[in-house]
């Protein structure tokens, strides 16, 4: 086998080759002699848990960090990229998970940020920038209004704008860090079409993702990292169990905890229940004629295609959706409930974990400790004054119960990994001692190892008598975690499955087809 950075006679060298790359940050060794290759026109998936070294490796490739040792080659020639500008000059661009876009500027201004087109006299040539922006979007067959503010675009369209912006530099290679974490199914399909078009034109793409089910759809090759090392290079159609084993160092069947079967009293009862909003919103699927139950000690999953109404059902129960009122039977713990606001939901013993932890689940600049106690301010503030002792006790309880790392309540929550941020969101809601926990995409953007920890914590909470209703786009997650799966379509429940069920059976019901 030819080593990275070397070629056999007559063979073309790889577009990019990294050999023996090491990197320390203080006493932490982030990379331990890593070899990695990217060929022209290849989509190379790079997988690994948070902390595995993926981002550090790509930051070296992008010129953000310099390696302590090792070699970086482009077309077989050693290079040293001292900063991102040199990487861009070499044809390498990176799209980070947190998009470097300015929401208050329009699309055209974002595409030319830092490289504005000027008229004589140093004035901005807005018309020229908008014309050029339209050409660039048309080149990848996308129609987005270049005069719209980026802040008004969907997450999917923002991702496209970031790609088009990066393409100004990515003549050779494009690094994409978690590009699909917040996209709908349709937006993912559109993104993959763009990636295939780029690879067909010879651009090499490094694709970093936690979504293992996407790998066979888009990748040509897969490299898995763990603890700063490469632990495997496989074909994209390798069994998901093999990938999970490489990622976490243990068999895939250990990902989901063993569940207790005993259930208690009925906590949530919906019978022919629906939600009538005060004002309709395009694309918001109202719950209609829903009938389902959740008992104490039970985890119930909500399945369905995008737009089936899963998120709307959870947000309407918690009072974060549109203003309006429920009709039909809605009972919490055996009593009729009028869930018109967050206050009413919390008073009824309901907690909710949003699918957008960074947008609405956390205050990223505030400390881990302050984020944790936000749902129990009355408990830690007797007489309206914050009690440092009560706050410290509640925070210590959450840090230990959810194994949030690092165990430092003073650091900003935005500095944590995605998995630990999600643990903070969960811990924050559990501090309120709810009876019913609503979860919307609870492991979105979370690596496999952190998923296993979250699953174990949810199972433990259910064993303590908590009722859990969880919506997820990941079918293996629903099947592995839940006692029952309720399938929604067009705002209604259309099927229900108990125990281990075949994934294709659930998908058939979600799409209105016979299994």
From TrEMBL:
Please report a single Pfam family linked to this protein: ABC_tran
Looking at the keywords, is ATP-binding present? yes
Asked whether the keyword Membrane is assigned, the reply is yes
- A single Gene Ontology molecular function, please? ATP binding
- The ABC transporter domain is annotated at 16-252, 268-515
Keyword field: ATP-binding, Cell membrane, Membrane, Nucleotide-binding, Repeat, Sugar transport, Translocase, Transport
Q: Mainly localized where?
A: membrane
Its cellular-component GO annotations read: plasma membrane
| InterPro entries per UniProt | AAA+_ATPase, ABC_carbohydrate_import_ATPase, ABC_transporter-like_ATP-bd, ABC_transporter-like_CS, P-loop_NTPase
Say which domain of life the source belongs to.
Answer: Bacteria
Compartment(s) of residence: Cell membrane
Q: How does it sit in the membrane?
A: Peripheral membrane protein
Under the heading SUPFAM superfamilies, the entry gives: P-loop containing nucleoside triphosphate hydrolases
Task: Give the matching PROSITE patterns.
Answer: ABC_TRANSPORTER_1 (PS00211), ABC_TRANSPORTER_2 (PS50893)
Q: What is this protein called?
A: Ribose import ATP-binding protein RbsA
What organism does this protein naturally occur in? Answer: Aliidongia dinghuensis
Q: What is the lineage of its organism?
A: Bacteria, Pseudomonadati, Pseudomonadota, Alphaproteobacteria, Rhodospirillales
């Amino acid at each position: 086998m030819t080593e990275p950075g070397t070629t056999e006679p007559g063979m073309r060298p790889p577009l990019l080759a990294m050999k023996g790359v090491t990197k320390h940050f203080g006493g932490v060794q982030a990379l331990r002699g890593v070899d990695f290759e990217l060929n022209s026109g290849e989509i190379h998936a790079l997988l690994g848990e948070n902390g595995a070294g993926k981002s550090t490796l790509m930051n070296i490739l992008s010129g953000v960090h310099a390696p302590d040792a090792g070699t970086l080659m482009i077309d077989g020639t050693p290079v040293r990229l001292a900063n991102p500008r040199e990487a861009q000059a070499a044809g390498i661009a990176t799209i980070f998970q947190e998009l470097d876009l300015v929401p208050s500027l329009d699309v055209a201004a974002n595409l030319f940020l830092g490289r504005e087109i000027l008229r004589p006299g140093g004035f901005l040539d807005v018309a020229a920038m908008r014309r050029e922006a339209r050409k660039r979007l048309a080149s990848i067959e996308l129609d987005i209004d270049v005069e719209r503010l980026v802040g008004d675009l969907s997450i999917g369209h923002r991702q496209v704008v970031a790609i088009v912006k990066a393409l100004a530099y990515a003549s050779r290679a494009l690094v994409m860090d978690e590009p699909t974490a917040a996209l709908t199914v349709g937006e993912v399909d559109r993104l993959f079409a763009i990636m295939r078009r780029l690879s067909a034109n010879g651009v090499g793409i490094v694709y970093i993702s936690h979504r293992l089910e996407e790998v066979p759809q888009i990748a040509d090759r897969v490299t898995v990292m763990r603890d700063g090392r490469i632990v495997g290079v496989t074909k994209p159609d390798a069994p998901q169990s093999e990938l999970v084993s490489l990622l976490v160092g243990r068999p895939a069947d250990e990902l989901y905890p063993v569940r207790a079967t005993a259930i208690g009293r009925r906590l949530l009862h919906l019978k022919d229940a629906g939600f009538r909003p005060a004002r309709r919103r395009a694309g918001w699927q109202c719950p209609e004629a829903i009938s389902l139950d959740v008992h104490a000690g039970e985890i119930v999953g909500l399945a369905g295609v995008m737009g089936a109404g899963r998120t709307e059902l959870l947000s309407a129960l918690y009072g974060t959706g549109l203003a309006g009122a429920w009709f039909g039977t809605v009972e919490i713990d055996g009593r009729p409930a009028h869930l018109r606001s967050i206050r009413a939901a919390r008073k009824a013993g309901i907690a909710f974990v949003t699918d957008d932890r960074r947008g609405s689940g956390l205050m990223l600049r505030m400390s881990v400790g302050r984020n944790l106690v936000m749902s129990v301010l009355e408990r830690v503030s007797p007489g309206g004054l914050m009690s440092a002792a009560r706050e410290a006790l509640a925070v210590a309880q959450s840090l230990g119960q959810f194994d949030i790392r690092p165990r430092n309540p003073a650091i900003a929550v935005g500095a944590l990994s995605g998995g630990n941020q999600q643990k903070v969101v969960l811990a924050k809601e559990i501090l309120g001692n709810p009876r019913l926990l609503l979860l919307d995409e609870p492991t979105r953007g979370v690596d496999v190892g952190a998923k296993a920890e979250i699953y174990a914590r949810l199972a433990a909470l259910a064993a303590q008598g908590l009722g859990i209703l969880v919506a997820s786009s990941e079918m293996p997650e629903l099947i592995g975690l839940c006692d029952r799966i309720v399938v929604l379509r067009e705002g209604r429940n259309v099927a229900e499955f108990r125990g281990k069920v075949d994934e294709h059976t659930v998908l058939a019901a979600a799409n209105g087809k016979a299994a």
